[in-house]
Design goal:
By secondary structure, the protein is of the alpha/beta class. The chain has 9 helices and 14 strands. An 8-stranded mixed beta sheet has the order 8-9-10-7-11-12-13-14, covered by helices on one side. It has a 6-stranded parallel beta sheet with strand order 3-2-1-4-5-6, with helices on both faces.
Amino acid sequence: MRKFRWGVLGTADIAKGQTIPGMQMAEHCELYAIAGRKIEKAKDYQETFGFQKAYGSYNELLEDPEVEAVYIPLPNDLHCEWTIKTLKAGKHVLCEKPLAVTEKQVKEMFRTAEENQVFLMEAFAYLHSPYIQAIKEEMDSNTIGDIRYLESSFITGRRPDTDIRLRRETFGGAMYDLGCYTSSLALWLLRKEPDTIRAIAKFSDKKIDLYTAALLEYKDGPIVKLDCGMVLTDGRSDHLYISGTKGEIESTTEFNQCGETQYIVRRNGKEETKTVASPNNYALEAEQLSRCIQTGGKPHVNKDFSLLVARVTDRILKETGY
């Protein structure tokens, strides 16, 4: 397999700090072009990361016939618009989470991908981790029995009011920025939509949810508790706890951590800490989609899953009055 020529549409912090360095590690990913609203910043990224080309507008990158796939790290409100433009340009797309701000938009994006015969994948890097796969395998192998309760939380420090993630017009707030991790993790592990959702939120004076809590209930199944917020004085806290009829699993590692990752299994009065070697998740997602495009495989984070996450997010936001 050859290297696949990637373009990056935007110069967001997530691209600079996480995804682009991960793409550099991916075996079949070539950093070909970078585009920003200002050519100076695009050229800075070009020099820092070794892109072959830099563009001062997004459309210029999409018009480059050499670009085969595009990573989109733009603000939430621009995901749908620029993903659709990119797909119509015949480019495959890896778009940052949340893929869109409504399930309706997600449906439109995948319909456009299918019409143009290109791939679209939502960038949940952590779902590519062997760590998450190991926990899922514990559940599937009945290590802790039937699941009765699952708790997933992700809480960070309060951001400045000027932060783009606290702006209503860009669909900021805890649920869109952090809750997509907690909900997607629970849904990935359980693989089904809850029957009932109840949720509450604490809003800022700008009508942004600073904290959201949701209870997901399954008929004759588990209860799921989700928490996300930007309320800590400092630092961050993410947590996964799963209780079953035979035991429990508790994570001791952050969602996106690489290197030595660990979780605890408790059953029959005994506790065992399990260690999983996890490569860079951002490299794994770029490599997976590059391989998928070239060999005709299926995206790890697929259409049905992205639709499920968007649908559940819609239901939670409706409950909170966002």
